[in-house]
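quick one: thiamine diphosphate bound model?
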Amino acid sequence: MITIRKLEERLLELFSSGRLAGTVHTCIGQEACAVGIASALDLDRDIVFSNHRGHGHYIAYSDDVEGLIAEVMGHPDGVCGGIGGSQHVQLRNFYTNGIQGAGAPIVVGMALAEKLKGTGSVAVVNLGDGTFGEGALYEAMNIASLWDVPMIFSVEHNRYAQTTPFELQHAGDLSGRGEAFGIETHRLDGMDVHAVAEAASGAVARARSSMRPQLIFMETYRFAPHSKGDDFRDRSEIERYRQRDPINLLARQAGLEAQVGEIEAEVKERLDGIVHRLSEDRP
Ligand SMILES: Cc1ncc(C[n+]2csc(CCOP(=O)(O)OP(=O)(O)O)c2C)c(N)n1
Ligand SMILES: [Mg+2]
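yep, here:
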């Protein structure tokens, strides 16, 4: 989680100094969602299909910090040769797509293919609350449930789509949308990595054994702007959520508060080395 946090902060710095190609959407504040879900997967066979805010999902899946930074810098050592950028990252069974909701029907097909091949794989699609405005998501939920597809709808409810609060976009209860299609739903605190890991491990096991889709609905918050500077949220609201910082929460739970600084320093050294090498070696 600290690696993801520090990587995202570094990407924002690199963006400000004009060293990134394209855009970035950071997941600062949402690290527990990415790490908790990845901890429940069998990374040799399960599939992850991420969205525009996918750096944390990718690092939790691969720990490929260098491949991601290089990719976002447009460097040929990037995981996709520096031509995909932040929103088009692919490695082994990890994919991203920046079009909201596009991953959902694709994952239905991927997970169905795995079911037909008998591999026992489960596929996860990462979604934001704003993406509940996309019709393709409901078509995906319908077929996933109707055809018993072993997949997880992983929802990070950070309360906003860009700067629009969810209450101004959606009528009714977002967390119950999957249940309308008969999809078992797990609601939890997305700031608590243990809660996410526990719910995800149960949901993944159920999807694998019963072939029934599952929905994990995580209440979370993003501390940084949607992308770089576009933020109209109330400062006091951001401050309130910062009190529930998932890294501090985990450090407290684990009694590791004294070690956080040390881990941050190690991560910083790793990032410094990578950025230095990529900057020197720029083609
Ligand atoms: C189909 C489509 N429409 C609009 C956009 C532009 N866009 C990118 S992210 C975003 C908001 C997404 O909100 P949410 O699903 O809540 O995810 P979050 O950014 O909060 O993680 C929008 C409108 C897009 N990428 N795809
Ligand atoms: Mg959102």
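DSSP finds ten helices and eight strands in the chain.
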